[in-house]
Specification:
By secondary structure, the protein is α+β, with helices and mostly antiparallel strands. It is built from 8 helices and 11 strands. The strands form 3 sheets. A 5-stranded mixed β-sheet has the order 6-8-9-11-10. A 4-stranded antiparallel β-sheet has the order 2-1-4-3. A two-stranded antiparallel sheet has the order 5-7.
């Protein structure tokens, strides 16, 4: 619990810090943008004043060196000089090739009108010209600066989130592993006692039929304990016949299920070999069959079919139950996800881990239709 509380607190702190950093970035960028925009406005006003000085200068001997130098000093802000009728008189810092096309100049003029108020130049006899300008490339690039920083920050937060998530998953896996091993240990004590009682029942000449069934269930409990004890450890794999191991798990549940369920076991080849851990693989088959039985509410058809190709052994487990939406095909393998009123949502998650992590195979929902049924498929490497 302390780990969870610390994680939640740390996440909140990270979110607050991140929000603060993003706010500061946006505010500073906005401040810089306004400052540079004002500076460009002042520069354009000086250029306009220089342009007016040249246009209104009637003294032929007066020097225009300074006004021309001011106009020529503007090398980065595109501008257009137009008369009061909108006719373009001059342009500066625009693409010289594209400017040969009058439509390009008119488009640029519209952009400049949208971005900035024009600067008026007054002449004698009510003559007027206007200096239109748009933002410099430096100012335009500044607008992308916060986006770049935010993306970098988002990447940084994503890395932190992945670290938190992996740490949490590792903690949960450690907890589940410890619980599983402790369960196996706790089951071991009453199992030993039950085996002793079975021996006494045999000596008391109790009907062998009942004793055998009790003994089967005790061995079943022992198998379950062994399965739990193997969680978190790398299981030993052996070359085994997939058909016989699958059939063993199938027959155990068939004998203990409702007679209203029609069971079918279909094989095209008598023996198909793969590297298996019998107890864990049998657990997967039982989980899938139980899911099918639950989905059918104890009435319907359940089919286990085993086929193969040149490289893979294919195990299909189909039921005629309630089915599921396609959006749930992957969700059902996530820990904690369940469609049952009672359940931990661990069976299919463990099955996926057993098949993919331990047996280097694949398990997935092959197909499913609402109110028609579901087919799970397992793929295992085929060996000779």
């Amino acid at each position: 619990m302390s780990f969870l509380k610390n994680t939640i607190l740390l996440k909140r702190v990270v979110i607050i810090i991140s929000f603060t950093i993003v706010t500061l970035i946006l505010w500073n960028t906005y401040s810089f943008f306004k400052r540079f925009k004002n500076e460009e406005r002042v520069k354009m006003e000086i250029v306009a004043a220089a342009q007016q000085e040249i246009a209104t200068n009637t003294d032929l001997e007066a020097s225009t060196t300074l006004p021309l130098a001011i106009i020529e000093s503007n090398t980065n802000i595109p501008l257009i000089l137009a008369d009061n009728k909108g006719n373009i008189l001059e342009y500066f810092n625009l693409d010289s090739i594209k400017a040969l096309n009058n439509d390009y100049l008119l488009d640029q003029l519209e952009i400049m009108k949208a971005q900035n108020e024009p600067i008026e130049i007054s002449f004698l006899k009510d003559g007027k010209q206007y200096v239109y300008y748009r933002n410099s490339d430096l100012l335009n690039n500044l607008t992308y600066y916060p986006l770049t920083l935010i993306l970098i920050l988002a990447l940084f937060l994503a890395v932190i989130y992945m670290m938190f998530t992996s740490s949490k998953v590792a903690e949960q896996n450690k907890l589940w592993t410890g619980m599983a091993k402790e369960t196996a240990h706790q089951i071991g004590t009453p199992l030993s006692s039950l085996l002793g009682w079975i021996a006494i029942l045999k000596m008391e000449n109790v009907d062998d039929k009942y004793v055998d069934e009790i003994e089967k269930d005790v061995h079943r409990l022992n198998t379950i304990a062994n399965r739990f004890s193997k969680i978190g450890s790398l299981p030993e794999l052996k070359k085994l016949d997939v058909v016989s191991v699958t059939k063993k798990a199938y027959e155990y549940l068939e004998a203990r299920s409702s007679k209203q369920i029609s069971f079918s076991f279909v094989v095209k080849e008598k023996m198909l070999y793969s590297n298996l851990n019998e107890e864990l693989y049998g657990w997967v088959i039982e989980n899938l069959i139980k899911n099918g039985i639950d989905a059918m509410l104890g009435k319907g058809d359940l089919v286990v079919e085993i086929t193969s190709d040149s490289k893979k052994i294919i195990i299909n487990i189909s039921d005629s139950g309630k089915g599921m939406a396609k959006s749930q095909f992957k969700k059902i393998f996530k820990p904690g996800f369940t469609t049952k009123k009672r359940g931990w949502g661990l069976g299919l998650s463990l099955s996926k881990r057993i098949i993919q992590d331990y047996h280097n195979g694949k398990i997935f929902v092959k197909k499913s239709e609402i109110n028609k049924g579901t087919t799970f498929q397992i793929l295992l490497d085929k060996i000779t």
